[in-house]
UniProtKB/TrEMBL annotation:
SUPFAM superfamilies: Lipocalins. Pfam families: Lipocalin (PF00061). One of its GO terms (molecular function) is lipid binding. Residues 3-101 form the Lipocalin/cytosolic fatty-acid binding domain. Belongs to the calycin superfamily. Fatty-acid binding protein (FABP) family. It comes from the Eukaryota. Keywords: Lipid-binding. It comes from Daphnia galeata. This is Lipocalin/cytosolic fatty-acid binding domain-containing protein. The keyword Manganese does not apply.
Length: 102
């Protein structure tokens, strides 16, 4: 199952309607959607199943997603043309993933 998950190419979609954002990530195995307003705290379920309080901010082309839980984690998403660079930081572990537009 892990090999299948690692080989799946996710589809990431960010939409905005007024002040409301929707961020959807879809793979062969799962679809996750979060809805939020910039700078406003909201509750979500992390990938590990933990319920956390999150806040997302935008500075230029960088979107920072802070998840307050145990442990706290941060995803910085940088939008550059047809590329999205996502950097997840949890404690002293950093994971970087690059998404390309089709």
């Amino acid at each position: 199952m892990r090999k299948l998950g690692n080989s799946a190419t996710p589809v990431v979609e960010l939409t905005k309607e007024g002040d409301d954002y929707t961020f959807t990530t879809t793979t062969m195995l799962k679809t996750t959607t979060i809805k939020f307003k910039l700078g406003e705290e909201f509750e979500e379920e992390r990938g590990d199943g933990a319920k956390v309080k999150s806040t997302i901010t935008l500075d230029g082309n960088k979107m920072t997603h802070v998840m307050k839980g145990d442990p706290e984690s941060t995803i910085t998403r940088e939008f550059n043309g047809d590329e999205l660079k996502a950097v997840l930081t949890v404690n002293d572990v950093v994971c970087t993933r690059i998404y390309k537009a089709e």
